[in-house]
TrEMBL record:
<dbReference type="InterPro" id="IPR036388">
    <property type="entry name" value="WH-like_DNA-bd_sf"/>
</dbReference>
<dbReference type="Pfam" id="PF08221">
    <property type="entry name" value="HTH_9"/>
</dbReference>
<comment type="function">
    <text>DNA-dependent RNA polymerase catalyzes the transcription of DNA into RNA using the four ribonucleoside triphosphates as substrates. Specific core component of RNA polymerase III which synthesizes small RNAs, such as 5S rRNA and tRNAs.</text>
</comment>
<comment type="similarity">
    <text>Belongs to the eukaryotic RPC3/POLR3C RNA polymerase subunit family.</text>
</comment>
<feature type="domain" description="RNA polymerase III subunit RPC82-related helix-turn-helix">
    <location>
        <begin position="4"/>
        <end position="63"/>
    </location>
</feature>
<feature type="domain" description="DNA-directed RNA polymerase III subunit RPC3 winged-helix">
    <location>
        <begin position="296"/>
        <end position="359"/>
    </location>
</feature>
<dbReference type="GO" id="GO:0005666">
    <property type="term" value="C:RNA polymerase III complex"/>
</dbReference>
<dbReference type="Pfam" id="PF22536">
    <property type="entry name" value="WHD_POLR3C"/>
</dbReference>
<dbReference type="InterPro" id="IPR039748">
    <property type="entry name" value="RPC3"/>
</dbReference>
<dbReference type="InterPro" id="IPR055207">
    <property type="entry name" value="POLR3C_WHD"/>
</dbReference>
<keyword id="KW-0804">Transcription</keyword>
<protein>
    <recommendedName>
        <fullName>DNA-directed RNA polymerase III subunit RPC3</fullName>
    </recommendedName>
</protein>
<comment type="subunit">
    <text>Component of the RNA polymerase III (Pol III) complex consisting of 17 subunits.</text>
</comment>
<dbReference type="InterPro" id="IPR013197">
    <property type="entry name" value="RNA_pol_III_RPC82-rel_HTH"/>
</dbReference>
<dbReference type="GO" id="GO:0003697">
    <property type="term" value="F:single-stranded DNA binding"/>
</dbReference>
<keyword id="KW-0539">Nucleus</keyword>
<keyword id="KW-0240">DNA-directed RNA polymerase</keyword>
Length: 443
């Protein structure tokens, strides 16, 4: 896992922050002096790296009694999800949302985002209005972690032939960092501005809403999917028919009759349950577990083939079964059933239990296999990032000579763009599984 953390941080913020993040993951907690001894980097470079990571909320600290730094592991791994966050915000507010500036800097004031937008020739009034709307709807949250570093920090990968990524942290100041870092002689006075960060939890909820909608649509129909998403967004409490109607989008139009029909279908499918005579609530436990089972089933189909995934689905739906019953329900010969059961059991996807004297029964415990699947997902993301980095090294020299390339070199660049797109799509698909396995679907 430490190598994946290193790659993610290196790609976004450079070598020194990546080494610090990796060291904190390995060591769990460290003081500034311990990090300097462990990493063998100079004091100023280490300070700058910590400032960048704290501004990104990747590193936090406690005073116990000395200042000790800790890595927020999930903040790092969440960076895999950034393309999805950008897509969601841009779909709601357009490119004037400054979402990429906010993600790149970790936290910014409204004035800083507006100034950045001016440099890109965007309308400052429009940008200001959108930012205030994002704050009003909780897409941006106030934060007291800022950065006292005044100059841009540049990724030093250029020497190695890799693209350089700048982290823009200009004119950001941090009263909290003055306590987090041992004092420097020169201190910057703090401006009384509110700084904001992206509310990743809200965006994760919206992504979960999409997952619920997609699942219900595949089981029933699009109208049921829309109603399920509305119920999820309305919160943990049970909701009435009138509340659902009020929350429905203008298009497509869902009439009273269609709503009643969909509620009946959702209840029969055990996706919602009646709380009172006039209110319902989502059966989130079943939806979440079924989504995980479907995801694992897809993984098994790619790993072992259709027979094993079919056996897994039957065991998940029916509970403990013997080999003969599994064979009958899956419509597979006993020999193929036995092979599938052995594959799944030896890989840890199912468990066996002896009932009576010698009868062997098989079952599925989703909770026990979740961690193994999650580790495999992170390992796959790590391998894909290494592959992407390797491909990037091959074309970096060509990219520097854009406009002076031969036709063969242009084809090489096009080939890289195609590979990059495929790898990034694969990483986002893996992240969908990671989201499902790491964040419980709850209100």
């Amino acid at each position: 896992m430490e190598e994946l953390i290193f790659l993610i941080v290196q790609e976004l913020y450079g070598e020194d922050p990546a080494h610090v993040a990796k060291a904190l993951y390995i060591r769990n907690k460290s003081t500034l002096k311990q990090l300097q001894t462990f990493l063998h980097i100079n004091d100023q470079a280490l300070r700058n790296a910590i400032i960048i990571l704290m501004q990104q909320l990747i590193v936090s600290f406690i005073e116990a009694p000395k200042i000790v730094y800790m890595l927020n592991e999930q903040e790092v791994l969440q960076r895999i999800r950034y393309p999805r966050y950008i897509r969601l915000i841009n779909m709601k507010y357009g490119e004037d949302s400054c979402i990429e500036d906010l993600l790149e800097n970790g936290c910014c004031s409204i004035n800083q985002l507006i100034e950045s937008a001016k440099e890109l020739h965007r309308n400052p009034d429009s940008v200001g209005y959108i930012l205030r709307e994002m704050i009003h709807h909780d897409y941006m949250l106030p934060v007291d972690r800022r950065c006292e570093l005044k100059t841009s920090s540049e990724n030093n990968q250029k020497k190695q032939g890799k693209p350089t990524k700048k982290v823009k942290i200009e004119n950001l100041i941090a009263p909290i960092l003055s306590t987090a870092l041992p004092k420097n002689k020169s201190e910057v006075s703090a401006e009384k501005e509110i700084y904001y960060r992206l509310n990743a939890n809200k965006l994760n909820k919206e992504m979960q809403s999409e997952l619920i909608g997609g699942f219900v649509s595949s089981k029933l129909n699009m109208n049921c999917s829309i109603i399920a998403e509305v119920m999820f967004k309305l919160g943990y409490r049970s909701v009435t028919r009138q509340e659902i109607l009020a929350g429905l989008p203008a298009s497509p139009k869902i009439s009273n009759q269609i709503l009643d029909s969909c509620l009946e279908m959702l209840e029969k499918a055990d996706l919602i349950e009646k709380d009172t005579e006039i209110s319902w609530k989502l059966n989130l436990h079943k939806i979440h577990n079924t989504l995980i089972a479907f995801t694992i089933e897809k993984i098994l189909q790619g790993k072992f083939g259709g027979y094993s995934s079919r056996v897994f689905r039957i065991l998940f739906n029916k509970g403990l079964l013997d080999e003969k019953t599994i064979s009958e329900l899956s419509l597979l010969p006993l020999k193929d059933t036995n092979i599938s059961l052995n594959e799944l059991f030896s890989s840890g996807f199912i468990y066996a239990k002896t009932v009576g004297n010698s009868q062997m029964y098989y079952g599925v415990k989703i909770e026990e296999i979740r961690d193994d699947v999650l580790k495999q997902c992170y390992k796959s993301v790590h391998n894909l990032k290494i592959k992407l980095s390797s491909e990037m090294e091959e074309v970096w020299g060509l990219a520097q000579r854009a406009g002076f390339l031969t036709s063969e070199e242009r084809q090489t660049i096009e080939r890289y763009n195609h590979i990059e797109s495929r790898i990034e799509s694969a990483i986002l698909e893996l992240d969908r599984t990671i989201l499902l396995l790491t964040i419980p679907i709850s209100f």
